[in-house]
TrEMBL record:
It comes from Comamonas guangdongensis. The gene is aroA. One of its GO terms (molecular function) is kinase activity. ATP binds at G470, P471, T472, A473, S474, G475, K476, G477, T478. Pathway: Metabolic intermediate biosynthesis; chorismate biosynthesis; chorismate from D-erythrose 4-phosphate and phosphoenolpyruvate: step 6/7. Its EC number is 2.5.1.19, 2.7.4.25. It catalyses: CMP + ATP = CDP + ADP; dCMP + ATP = dCDP + ADP; 3-phosphoshikimate + phosphoenolpyruvate = 5-O-(1-carboxyvinyl)-3-phosphoshikimate + phosphate. The lineage of its organism: Bacteria, Pseudomonadati, Pseudomonadota, Betaproteobacteria, Burkholderiales. Keywords: Amino-acid biosynthesis, Aromatic amino acid biosynthesis, ATP-binding, Cytoplasm, Kinase, Nucleotide-binding, Transferase. This is Multifunctional fusion protein. The keyword Transcription regulation does not apply. Monomer.
Amino acid sequence: MFTTEFLDLPALDSAHGCVSLPGSKSISNRVLLLAALSQGTTTIHDLLDSDDTQVMLAALKQLGCKIKPDSVTPGQAIAVTGIGGQLPGGTSATLFLGNAGTAMRPLTAALALLGGNFEMTGVPRMYERPIGDLVDALRQLGCRIDYLRDQGFPPLKIGAPDFSQFSSLPIQVRGDVSSQFLTSLLMALPLLAKDRDVTIEVVGELISKPYIHITLELLTRFGIEVRNDNWQRFVIPAGSRYRSPGAIHVEADASSASYFIALGAIATGAADEADADNAAEPKSIRILGVGRDSIQGDIRFIEAAQAMGAQVENGPNWLQVSRGSWPLKAIDLDCNHIPDAAMTLGVMALYADGVTTLRNIASWRVKETDRIAAMATELRKLGATVEEGADFIRITPPAARADWKAASIHTYDDHRVAMCFSLAAFNPAKLPLRIEDPKCVAKTFPDYFETLFSVCQSACQQIPVICIDGPTASGKGTIAAAVAEALGYHLLDSGALYRITGLAASRAGLELDEANEETIAEMALDLPVRFGADQRVWLGDEDISLAIRTEQAGMNASRVSALPAVRAALVDLQLSFQQLPGLVADGRDMGTVIFPHAPLKVYLWASAQCRAERRYKQLISKGISANISTLLADLEARDARDMQRATAPLKPAEDSLQLDSSEMTIEEVVVQVLTWWQERQPFGRA
Ligand SMILES: Nc1ncnc2c1ncn2[C@@H]1O[C@H](COP(=O)(O)OP(=O)(O)O)[C@@H](O)[C@H]1O
Ligand SMILES: Nc1ccn([C@@H]2O[C@H](COP(=O)(O)OP(=O)(O)O)[C@@H](O)[C@H]2O)c(=O)n1
């Protein structure tokens, strides 16, 4: 997951490949609650690991459910042992539910019926999301719920219910604000249906029926057959009891699939339509985990995408999407049946041949953020003309390539805004795009951007490289790592490759000189090297992270690096590090030889005395003994060799910015490099 302040997406050209999507959030949290209310243990496969499921799991643990293992582990099922429809008397807890509507609403209903003393809290945005209609419905039954701040909104206090006034009259709930209210009642009211039918009556038009469909399907899996009278009345029959299905699979999120369906429709055409080679090879996006048999309403996003031009093939649990019409066709669509996925249509509209109108989307206004306002604001930043109304949005794409703008997309702590806007990186103007606060995707799809990059292609010159070259101990490695972390970029420590080559050659008993140049170059071509987490380096099965950091290893590196054949042998390996979303490369010739077109080249240096002192401290802190005057002499010898060698000598690239770090702290250097980088971006200062 990208936890950086922002993530810059370079212009993307095309997409092709296969993605496996994470489990659905709606299904995950419903299954968790139903498993928690049931008797016995439910083994849940493919549960989504996200902020919303984590708060739900934490809450269930507080309520006394057993969860094994303790948290969601990739590839491993999770077992939830439920409370069997009953909490121990006097249970009390403060439950923090973040910004998870799928936890706050159903848990409020269930706990208000179960009884106990609870405070239901969350993040500030949760306190702006209405819950009054659900509370009103529950109060009709005798539930005790108080507002702790604003009337109609969390946080809430729940006390012991008094069902003495509970009659057989239907419980009324509004259906036109959020379908989660009805879902919450449907999941919780079987608790009251032991010896009589419980009837729920919907007041007003029921929005988001597909989500109710998911709820009903899952209730069936847990032994509760609700009678659905035309989406207006729902009857939970007397004698209903939650029964664990034993094991259950969570299907992949159909809303998450929408980004990849759109990707197939937008980006699988040839990067350059005139390029015959590309045109010959059909490209597509294959999506695993969700397909024709999905119980999720958002699967009908496929129809909307097809209407805009996507070509879609499907199987029970897979989809395959490629570009059909291009440009996409503008549509005018009632989106009530696909409220979440419809946001993706808003970004597809940027690539359409006319004006797209998405209607009946009033519920967007009360989601993670006011999504109509958010979409309108951010689409305008990209150059679109947007009209918004209480329950619709109308989008006119940028008139021509030159009308597109490079935008920094604000994401409003809304995962879907972040994910759908990433698709604007395919703009024909080849402009980069900034996504602010990319970690907000953690709500439903923590590795969204990694998954996206894994199937996207971009021309080499579009993937940015920041080069940091300079003499030994100037701080290149330290600064490069910090800059890469701040930007979410990959890191190339090119010196490590020469160090590894030097180590391997000296272990093989070779003199590190011209006589062995070809032999060492062949070794360099075939090094079984692997870079792991925490900057660990492996040669075959051996962790050589420390062995390559000694001054002797540095000296050996300097020797082998003077051999032109060795340098040539390492070129392709170095180039292969230039991957989405970008690269920070440190070394001697990053800017002069390996990445001559890099948009930012920094030549970092410091006085020899200062560098010798830094290296001394560094070695001592690693427990390696050292002597300053020897270090100074070695470092000057290394500088001389690096600067005087015939091939790729150390020197500032003509277009580099020089930075003397002698009097600067590490933080100051990092800030300077990031400032230079920001100044080169079309977004303005962050
Ligand atoms: N601006 C700086 N001020 C003080 N110490 C620094 C600075 N930059 C780097 N260092 C320290 O100097 C040592 C050498 O830095 P390193 O990144 O290994 O250099 P290089 O990769 O250029 O050989 C490290 O211990 C690092 O923490
Ligand atoms: N791009 C590069 C990187 C390192 N090198 C050589 O490899 C040696 C070790 O590189 P390094 O970056 O790990 O060394 P330090 O700067 O950390 O001492 C340097 O002394 C250079 O001679 C090179 O020639 N070209």
